[in-house]
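Thread: Newbie trying to understand structure tokens

Hi all, I'm a second-year student working on a class project, and my supervisor (Dr. K.) asked me to get a predicted structure for one chain before our next meeting. I've only ever worked with sequences, so writing a 3D structure as a token string is new to me. If someone could post the tokens and maybe explain what I'm looking at, I'd be very grateful. Here's the chain:
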Amino acid sequence: MAKRKTAAPENSLPGGPENFAHLLDARAYAALLESLRQPLLPSIRVNPLKVEVEPAIREWSQAYGWDLRQVPFCPTGFWIQNNRAPVSQTWEHRLGQYYIQDAASMLPVELFDFPLQPGALVLDMAASPGGKTTHLAARLGDRNVIVANDSSASRLTALRLVLRNWGAANAGITCYPGQQFGEMCPGLFDAVLLDAPCSMQGLRSTDTHPMRAITAREQSGLALRQQRLLESAVLATRPGGQVVYSTCTLSPEEDEGVVDAMLKQFGSSLRLDDISSSMPEEARGILQDKDVTYSKEVRKAARLWPHVYGTAGFFAARFTLLDAPAHATIRENIRGRQNRYELLPQKQLTGLIQQWREQYSFPLEEVLAEYRLVVIQSGRELYAAPEWFFGAGSFLNLSSVGLPLAEITPDGFLPAHDWMARFEAKFGCGRYQLPEEQIEPWLRGSDISGTLEARFNLRQVVLVTDAQGRYLGLAKILNDRLKNMLPRRLAGGW
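---
Reply by user tm_fold:
Sure, no problem. This is what the structure looks like when written as tokens:
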């Protein structure tokens, strides 16, 4: 039975480029129409927490026949111009060595001034599905604390898996309405990213931002919601801190209109930064939308047109808070904590450190200190998590936090895949090299049978690698076989 087409809402705005024709001259509009006839190139963002960017790019280009071209405003972002191997089906993608993301969505994070000072706190106010949070973790070197928030509890599972697969240890996930942060923790954060819910009028449908019809009333409602969210973001920022506002729409009402409203509301306390130096070509905000005129300051924002960059349409702006505005009174009922995590007792922590030193030559104590992490426990599961959440940040109600570290078992502390995939280069021993012919069945989730090396003990957990030393997962030694310990989300489907 054929699916019925969903009718556009009554009084809906045009969903195509004609809705924005008045914002462009004739030549630019013709270029826009031509660009929309071309397919959108897939793009990836490399994970520097796990691999070195340039060697990885060379290796993948050779292995998969990719012709990679760098995204001009993101040093770790690349378009794939010759996609002979599906980007979603490689082992590198499953291991979190790169993230599949439209190039336009790479812009907002790159607008912050990095590096941030040690101990800086960062808020991603609308984080799901996690692409921009992983970008933040990469640009921060995973050494600053990130609060990854989303107002929808149903989206938190996907967010958690994305962050774990990326190897982000210094992040905690919360579930608050974004409008609450300004009064819940005023002046707390050094940087706030608000990738706001929007009408998604970016002229190019993507997996995460599909085009859809929208009414003028709905668009005005979204603009009002965006203003309230951005107000909360500003109030949650310390003086001298930065706020980046972005949308995946080209609608001026939701872009320049929201920025203009914030400048009027906060006056001299808030500065809109000129980000043109971050852009390889001019992509400035507009001053006029039909009969609406915006402040000349909005020209300092960035508007990505599909015909200029070959991306979906996008908008971004960066603010700096100069003076502390009048903050709302902190609402204690919002700050109440419900936390299922407990610090691992020192005796057990000492045992874990010693076991991993002896078995893997892994300097766990040094890594925890370097990244300002503590080991916490939830049942038998252990996590390495930012110490801030268990001190000054203990008022936050956490959905999840940190990176899975180990599991407590009768045989000792069983290493977690996510921790191994992130820090495998620091494991000095305990590696088992698979022969080439066994790699494919291993990646499909199969156990490997055969004679094992005598240097391994029964029930020992080892890091499985290929001949080049690349990490392929964990295995347990069981008599004459390697028991495959790949997470279900990674095994199979090859």
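A couple of things are worth pointing out once you decode it. Residues 336 and 395 are 6 Å apart (CA to CA). The chain has four domains: 13-100, 104-321, 339-424, 430-494. Feel free to ask follow-ups in this thread.
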